[in-house]
Input
Amino acid sequence: MGEQLFRKAGEFVPDRLIADVSIPVTAKGIKVAKGEGKLKRGTLLGIAADGTYKRTDTEEGAKAGEGDGETTTTPAIGADCILTDDVDATASEVVTTGYVTGAFNAAAIIVPEGKTVSAHEATLRQLGIFLRAVQEY
Output
């Protein structure tokens, strides 16, 4: 009787996030902030004031001064990395990874509605993240 020596462990579906490997693709460990919700692979993230990662271009409150001179500002989160995997940070912080270098498909990067990834292209280039136009096929 023949023995089954293999089994299907998963399925790979290309998402065209990584454009090419001419620039080494590297990642680092990150902690996505509680309340960010369900985030998809390819989401552009930045570092919040508390050190956690949040979606780029979202705003967070920051207080300055004391007493009557206290002011509240809402600076937007900048760009720092690209989320490597889908995560659900609705109820708690999630430890995961983010791409910090490489060449990526600009059309596959996820930013908040009404925002563009091209607004962060210069910053990303300084970090080692390069955006490419990838032809759909």
